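Bench notes, afternoon.
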Amino acid sequence: MAILVTGAAGFIGYHTATALLARGERVLGVDSINDYYDVRLKEARLARLREHKGFAFERLDLADRNALGEAVKREGGVDRIVHLAAQAGVRYSLTHPEAYIRANLEGHFAILELCRSLKGFQNLVYASSSSVYGGNTKLPFSVEDRVDNPVSLYAATKKADELMSHCYAHLYGLPMTGLRYFTVYGPWGRPDMAAFIFTRAILAGKPIQLFNGGDMKRDFTFVDDAVAGTIAALDRPASAEGGAPYRVYNIGNHRSEPLMRLVSLIEERTNKKAVIEYAPMQPGDVKETYADIGASQRDLGFTPRVTIDEGIPRFVQWYREYHGIAG
């Protein structure tokens, strides 16, 4: 039976669907293809997925439960779901809060109800975010930490998704695993993420903004590692031993890298010096992220393999090729 991958035209969704197809799975991809960022990039990802015989696609608003159910029926059913569709971005949530309620709450609810209706349902793996750690100051961030202090609406919706999922796992015995992704980057990445923004600006000779005076650190996770963790969670449904069949894991690189290190690597690969403008901390942002991946290593066999020293050059190479920039 097919695997449903939501957000299939998105960054992690595209890579996850590609990996599942490569191992012989049938994949039903759904995506609204909204204009949060350049639709052409989403269409290009989708065109590559459509080259696979095992891939089917439906364009729909995930919060439309009837449309979602009809799409699944047309495919002949699904038994596993990788739910990666969401309205992403911390800063965008300050100006477009309604998009997060629709996509991240109503959309997630639609997926939970779909799980409840499916015959032979096996597992749901869904995207949470490192943003749920919010104002926490203890590092590294552990899944055992309390996450009651979100500093953005985006983070609040992701925490709400975790709570709703636990409720459905508890009430209906449905295996569910949430993955708190930490700053995923790589080829085919999102234009609103730092690696993409900095590479584009540096190649064009335009300034980049470094918030908090550049004093920021992130746990950068290469997309191949994020996909490996996602599929490992899909293949290992949560057990009901000791309670509901529900788990949450960090998917990160277990390294907290200074933002200036990222800039330096892009400078080296582009052979251009960045023009830097320093700016204050932005509302909803945090100074540092750092993933404790002990639980995901123990339960999923998750072992990140790509550091930014390897991953950033691979991203910049893809960026040049995609945009036809020699170098």
